[in-house]
Amino acid sequence: MKILKIDHLGIAVKSIDAGRNFWTQVLGLPCEGTETVAEQKVTTAFFPVGESEVELLESTAPDGPIAKYLEKKGEGIQHVAFRVAHIEEALAELKAKGIQLIDEKPRSGAGGARIAFLHPKSTNGVLVELCERK
Ligand code: ZN
Questions:
Q1: Which of 19, 32, 50, 83 could form a disulfide with 13 if both were Cys (CB 3.0 to 4.6 A apart)?
Q2: Longest dimension (CA), the chain
Q3: Distance of CA 103 from the midpoint of ligand 1 (Å)
Q4: How far does the centroid of ligand 1 lie from the alpha carbon of residue 44, in Å?
Q5: What's the pTM value of the predicted model, to 2 decimals?
Q6: What span, in angstroms and rounded, lies between the C-alpha atoms of 117 and 107?
Q7: The sheet that has 34-37: what strands, in order across it?
Q8: What are phi and psi of 11, to 5 degrees?
Q9: Ligand 1 centroid to 25 CA: how many Å?
Q10: Hey, is 44 helix, strand or coil?
């Protein structure tokens, strides 16, 4: 498995409109626009930072994973995403190493990425996303 870089940090917010100000106005980062991923009941906004990005996540439904996260933990860093060269290969290797996978197979993420999550039980409490982009 080859980890290429930190692709992005996922940050849960109650509202992208309310939350984006810090990233754009205060830090001066550009916003690449928003995208809704219906399957994950989430709207995302990406802010490129050098080789990586900040991803703000706003729930589109009260039963979505981000809504549940906000209920339990409040706003803040929700996951870290690593860019991998071959996501199926990475998942197979991690599974063989005994890592609990949330997604056995990649699914579609924002920006046309193929993504999969690892269970925080296997990662010292960090929700880890693998991400492959062409
Ligand atoms: Zn993400």
A1: 19
A2: 45
A3: 13
A4: 9
A5: 0.93
A6: 9
A7: 34-37, 42-49, 52-59, 3-12, 76-84, 128-132, 114-118, 107-108
A8: -120, 120
A9: 22
A10: strand
Centre of ligand 1 to C-alpha 33, Å, is 15
Q: Which amino acid is at 23?
A: W
CA distance 92 to 35: 29
What structural domains does the chain harbor? 3-132 (3.10.180.10)
- Determine what percent of the chain is predicted with pLDDT higher than 70: 100
State in Å: Cα 116 to ligand 1 middle. Answer: 9
Dist. CA 57 → ligand 1 center (Å): 8
pLDDT tens track for 15-36: 999 999 999 999 999 999 899 9
* Start-to-end C-alpha separation, the chain: 17
Phi, psi of 103 (to 5 degrees): -115, 115
- Kindly give the distance from the C-alpha atom of residue 102 to the centroid of ligand 1, in angstroms, as a whole number: 14
**Rounded distance from Cα 84 to ligand 1 centre (Å):** 13
DSSP state of 120: G
Query: What separation in Å is there between the alpha carbon of 80 and the centre of ligand 1?
Result: 7
